[in-house]
Each structure stands twice: as structure tokens, then as C-alpha cells.
Amino acid sequence: MKMASSADVRDTSPGVITVVARRRFFDGIVKSCRQSLPGDLRKFTHSGSFNLMKLWYGYQRVHFEVVLDQQINRIEVGLHFEDGPASTIAYLELLDKRILELKEIFGHQMELERWTQSWGRIYELHPLTDLTPDVIQTVAARLDLYIRTLWPIVENAGIVHLRET
């Protein structure tokens, strides 16, 4: 199943999403990524809350995120930089230099954004629909692609984090 882009304006919102459905959705994504990712990339830490799940490798302030955003009826899949101004800017500049290559991999819906001085992300949005097994697998596949593509770039960047200074 291919998810529609954020430009698709049809109202596909599922209405009320129960806590059980959210938990099943996030658990399904974790399970799928643990099965699909290679070797060391399976060794991630994750946590979830009411509407989002974070997944990270060693340092939580640089993490992948899946968000169920009912305010805008979208599912976000992305990599967040929330470590402070210096490292956030460094990561965004690094990815900006490769933006054409990354858009070739992820598609035109992928965006690179500095939200505040110390917070940025590379992400994509999809319409929020019923959290069916097909949607779980589609989101998990996109997260898998983000991890496989972006984590090696982040890991090899040599950017110093706040806790390391």
C-alpha cells in the first residue's frame, strides 16, 4: 500500500483513535523494524507516549519519530535533532548539502526544517487514516528507510552533542 502525500487534501481522518489502537500501531512498527533492519540497526531503544514514538541509538536527543498528529490529520515519520543549537545546525547543514540525493531516495514529500534555534528535523507527512495492518507496515517501511539511509550519515558525522562537551 502506498500512502498519499501530504498534498492530498481529502479528509481521511479516522476519528477517535483509541489508546489500544495507538499502542498496537507503535508496537507493530517496532516489531517490523526489529525484523527488517540489518544487524546493529536492530539494537535501538524506543519509547512511546500517547501520540508519538521515539526510536534512538545511544543518545535520545537525536532520534527517529513517528507521530500521530490528529490536529492536522497527519502521520509524521522523521529524524529529529533536539540537542541544542550547535549540533542541530550542524546536522541540518550536513543534510542540506545532500538534500537532492535525499529527495531522490525519499521523494519530494521529504522536508528538512529548522523549527527553533535548537530543534530541527528531516521528515515527511502522510494522511492520518485508520491504523490498519497495511498502514502499520507502510509506516514501518518508511521508518526503516529513514533509519537505513540517515543513521549512517548521523553516526559518521562526528558532530559533538551537548553531553559530550
Description:
- By secondary structure, this protein is an alpha+beta fold.
- Helices cover 38% and strands 24% of the residues.
- It contains 4 helices and 6 strands; from the N terminus they run αββββααββα.
- The chain has helices spanning 19-36, 85-97, 99-106, 133-155; strands at residues 45-48, 52-56, 62-69, 74-81, 111-116, 119-127.
- The chain has a 6-stranded antiparallel sheet with strand order 1-2-3-4-6-5, with helices on one face.
- Strand 5 (111-116) and strand 6 form a beta hairpin.
- Helix 1 (19-36) packs across helix 4.
SSE topology sketch:
Layout: H1 19-36, E1 45-48, E2 52-56, E3 62-69, E4 74-81, H2 85-97, H3 99-106, E5 111-116, E6 119-127, H4 133-155
Antiparallel strand pairs: 1-2, 2-3, 3-4, 4-6, 5-6
Helix pairs in contact: 1-4
Detail the poorly predicted runs. 1-11
How much of the sequence lies in strands comes to 15-25%
Rough outline: globular
How are the strands of the biggest sheet laid out side by side? Answer: 1-2-3-4-6-5
**SSE order in H/E notation?**
HEEEEHHEEH
**Count of helical regions:** 4
CA-CA gap between termini: 45 Å
Would you tell me the structural class of the helices and strands? alpha+beta
Provide the residue-averaged pLDDT: 89
Give a count of the beta strands, DSSP E runs of length 2 or more. 6
From the alpha carbons, calculate the radius of gyration and give it in angstroms.
15 Å
Q: Sheet with the most strands?
A: 6 strands, antiparallel
Q: Percent of residues in helical segments?
A: 25-40%
Write a concise synopsis of the structure shown.
The protein has helices at residues 19-36, 85-97, 99-106, 133-155, and strands at residues 45-48, 52-56, 62-69, 74-81, 111-116, 119-127. The protein has 165 residues and is of the alpha+beta class.
